[in-house]
Amino acid sequence: MQSEVKKSGRLIKAPENFLVKDDAKSPELMRRKFLAASVSSAAASMAALGLAGSARAAAPVSGDGDPNILNLPTHSTGLGQPVAANPYGVPSQYEKGLQRRESPGLTRVSAASVAFTPLQGTFGIITPSGLHFERHHQGWWDIDPSKHRLMVMGLVRNPKVYTMDDIMRLPSVSRIHFIECGANTAMEWGNVAVPTVQYSHGMVSCSEFTGVPLSVLLEDCGIDMKKAKYVLGEGADGSSMTRTIPLDRALDDAIVAYGMNGEMLRPENGYPLRLVIPGVQGVSWVKWLRRIEVGDQKWATKDEAVHYIDLMPDGLHRQYTGIQETKSVITTPSGGQTLLDKGFYNISGLAWSGRGKIKRVDVSVDGGRNWRTARLETPVLSKAFTRFNIDWVWNGGPAILQSRAQDDTGYVQPKINQLREVRGTRSIYHQNAIQSWKVAESGEVSNVQVY
Ligand code: MTE
């Protein structure tokens, strides 16, 4: 292979676009199937470039020139589509493969399931609204906002019922925050379970939320500050989703939100009203919010006393562990992708902390022996995604890529064995260990655990 014709940075996308139910049951089967498919599709693209037989070479500049440059395409000579052909814009037809996806077999019915965000295909820190992960306990609804009501009651002097119009007249704020389901990465507590970052880490998204600070509503109703200690949020769906929120958190940065990324919330994400509790696990971000109660003790509802608790190695449960600790993951190169060439790659990923800002992210390409500090791209916001990037020249040998984040409290993301020492292997929630992606000599990237 001649250096002047070398083209670097090419990779085959992860196979999630082709995931079918049976494949998901066996990541190994899926990996083999993908390898077979990727070899044939790599061969096909090489053949198309006239490079059959050289799996790593790029297209040489031929004397005939590139027909994509020489022949004027119709889009350069004809009239394009009119404005408002799509009154509400949609992504390019060539980006159809990038979708949030359900992990087949994870739950018995799709109404009580998760659709994961394709982190491997998003840029920057904002998750497009249509790719924001969804987690419902009993299906989602598109609720008529003119009939939706929010009741605020309990330890307040003036209990009130608000219409959406009432709420949207109040002073509002817009803030960028991540939301992560406490069960994100849950499948990986025992061992490697899923092949791609979409399924290992895709129960997290980051959006700009707009709404009324919860403190404003509580003040508006005359909260009894002498007695009040907790606030309860209740959803209007059939799941009886109710969660206790400590008062200091409710008065700090919690929002009763109706906007997401510049538009009204999407129905799947709680339209027309949801709670935003920055830094806290997703289950407390009650969707289709219809009631807020102020009280002086925890309610111990089913979704905090029986579910969303941490089973510890001694058999006891931890309850009310809401904060999502510092976590990061390399989104590209990541599991299921295949690197086609040696040379330069931009390692890119996301880091977040439920306690504040990301201070630093270190990246290793040798399974944690050596670390280099990555570039944090601005903005670096509190309780929001931070995008990190670092240069890497792949020499074609085996490599293990890892990222390790630190937040401004000094907390450092743990290794999986450090986490297991404290939490055991039978937990579900709050798995924030360092993620490892193995790059094989073939260029194939897979999910591994490094202790
Ligand atoms: N609120 C109601 N009313 N019903 C639900 O099923 N799911 C919770 C939370 N709020 C849920 C809910 C869970 S477990 C999570 S992780 C987040 O919503 C997911 O929010 P999203 O679907 O907008 O990503």
Could you explain the architecture of this structure?
The chain has 451 residues and is of the alpha+beta class. The chain is 16% helix and 28% strand. It has 10 helices and 26 strands. It has helices spanning 21-25, 27-48, 67-70, 74-77, 164-169, 197-201, 214-220, 247-252, 302-305, 416-423, and strands at 11-12, 101-102, 114-116, 134-135, 149-154, 160-163, 173-180, 204-213, 230-235, 242-246, 255-260, 263-264, 274-276, 289-295, 310-311, 317-318, 327-332, 338-339, 343-352, 358-364, 372-373, 375-376, 386-394, 399-407, 436-439, 445-448. The strands form 7 sheets. A 5-stranded mixed β-sheet has the order 6-5-14-9-10. Strands 7, 8, 11, 12 and 13 form a 5-stranded antiparallel β-sheet that branches. Strand 5 (149-154) and strand 6 (160-163) form a beta hairpin. The chain is globular, with a radius of gyration of 24 Å. Residues 1-8, 17-21, 23-31 and 33-57 have low confidence and may be disordered. Bound molecules: ligand MTE. Ligand MTE is lined by residues 132-137, 179, 181, 235, 237, 239, 241, 268-270, 282-283, 285-288.
Short overview:
This protein is α+β, with helices and mostly antiparallel strands. The protein contains 10 helices and 26 strands. Residues 1-8, 17-21, 23-31 and 33-57 have low confidence and may be disordered.
